[in-house]
Amino acid sequence: MPQAIAPEEMNVYQNAEARFEEAAKQLGLEQGVYKYLKYPDKEVTLYIPVGMDNGTLEVFTGYRVLHSTVRGPGKGGIRFAPDVSLDEVRALAAWMTWKCAVVDIPFGGAKGGVICDPRKMSRGELERLTRRYTAELTSWLGPERDVPAPDVGTNEQTMAWVMDTYSMHVGMATTAVVTASRSNWAVHADGRKLPAAV
Description:
This protein has 198 residues and is of the alpha/beta class. 35% of the residues lie in helices and 27% in strands. The chain folds into two domains: 8-37, no CATH class; 39-195, 3-Layer(aba) Sandwich (Rossmann fold), CATH 3.40.50.10860. It has helices spanning 12-27, 31-38, 86-102, 123-136, 156-170, and strands at residues 42-51, 57-68, 74-81, 108-115, 146-150, 179-182, 185-188, 193-195.
């Protein structure tokens, strides 16, 4: 008879925490390091107003979590999906930290997402959503702070809007603020090949 899954096991962030706890125990992490790595550096929830094609105003909820910048700027995708949650974004940001560390590249972990269904949105609506999300995060993002990438529901075009919006806000073209996905790898604007976002 199949075992029932406890409700807490279904929460992706609690699953990530449980795996971290086990790894920390196996590694014998010093208590201060353990506490430092357990929590994200910072996280934000955004409420993003977007003018829709039919003339209405819709407010979308978005998130960005910067888990760690100890090894370098945060690196992680932006996903647009109906089931995005802050717990999911937290877990994926933490996993990106571990993934970058395991393959020894100079990035930390980050992740972002917006609760929406991109399949039901026009190109114009997606562009307005992406640009407003990016504008709200301009002080967080940057080649030396946090570098987004495509993920579920986003693509190279989304990253072009992110780059263009960020560049307008900082007053210069900044291609290294994003990476664009190439199968299971992403290529940073300076040419470094990186594992794609979790």
